[in-house]
Design a protein that fits this description.
It is built from one helix and five strands; from the N terminus they run βββββα. It is α+β, with helices and mostly antiparallel strands.
Length: 69
């Protein structure tokens, strides 16, 4: 199960939420630099991360689901 923790981190004001999978950090959701959206950063390990706009991720999931119909 993926758990979401809403944050209000004074040291990182752009951090909005953290996602955890079985108590292990999975991803951070941050405000975009332009302030008009949100980014998700997957934490594969300490050295490897993937950041993309949340909207792009949702569109990719929708396209994949549409193909399965």
């Amino acid at each position: 199960m993926i758990e979401t923790m809403i944050t209000s981190d004074q040291d990182s004001p752009s951090l909005v939420a953290e996602l955890y999978f079985h108590d292990n950090p999975l991803a951070d959701i941050t405000k975009s630099e332009t302030g008009d959206g949100f980014n998700i950063t997957f934490r594969w390990n300490k050295d490897e991360r993937l950041t993309m706009p949340v909207e792009d991720l949702l569109n990719s999931i929708k396209k994949a689901c549409d193909r399965l119909k």
